[in-house]
């Protein structure tokens, strides 16, 4: 979001009387679950410093800021991965103004989750992990971003549906909410029982789907965290070869997949894929949407498999056999914990 739009949304939030915000929050979170103060305190500000040679620097920058969510008593902080991927150092700031160094724990490309751990106790009550599978359209939830009670926004679930990102990323059942929160990156999506059900990833213009203009946010469902938590804590990444990755960004335009960006030094670039090329399919099978493209590619096997990509370049259709890699092996990752 451009700065003027973000400022406008933030201004509308902060003009809400604090008493009104507190009343809305109290109605959404039962007293038996957690207090507003505990809920707000558990969402911290994170700032990360990225490896200057990082592959993600060109798109995401060398320093990144957003929210993180304290999820255990020892100071484990969950956030959205693009805020910390390829970080060599990080810090966490509490709502009380205390700043503490944090170590990089792990990152997962498939879900988009990232984990940090503070180097000193925060003495903050963590948010409990809920069940995102139970969240349905119309449910009232809270979005909690760093910055105190004024950054708590009551929302409703606008849709539960598939989300395909242009960066070879696919969620089967993402959570879309309205109205939009202006500070969505790493924000906590909290259910009525006071438990965490999602982590903020994007601002979108079609939260309801079906090509309807409906500004909102997309959250990564929390159910994806527990199956990978052990691997992230032990190894900084999920074990195994991972899914095939080519390093191509594409957009669905006019019923075709048009390449919008090719990651430098990626398998796609090495194979000669360029911006403006059109992806026709995989191995002779048509792929005119991002989900179809990803699923056909991933069905070929694990990372390392050769992907027979059918593309149109300069008006001619070609078959390019591209050896895939694991996305994590391409990044400059360093677990510091």
Give an overview of the whole structure.
- It is a single chain.
- The chain has 337 residues and is α+β, with helices and mostly antiparallel strands.
- It folds into three domains: 33-126 and 228-235, Thrombin, subunit H (Beta Barrel), CATH 2.40.10.10; 132-223, Beta Barrel (Thrombin, subunit H), CATH 2.40.10.10; 248-330, PDZ domain (Pdz3 Domain, Roll), CATH 2.30.42.
- It is 18% helix and 37% strand.
- It is built from eight helices and 18 strands.
- It has helices at residues 3-14, 18-28, 36-41, 57-60, 226-235, 267-270, 290-298, 327-330, and strands at residues 43-50, 63-70, 76-80, 87-93, 99-107, 113-118, 140-144, 152-165, 169-178, 188-190, 196-204, 216-221, 248-253, 256-262, 278-282, 285-286, 306-313, 316-323.
- A six-stranded antiparallel β-barrel has the order 1-2-3-6-5-4. Strands 7-8-9-12-11-10 form a six-stranded antiparallel barrel.
- Strand 10 and strand 11 form a beta hairpin.
- The two termini are 33 Å apart.
- The relative contact order is 0.14.
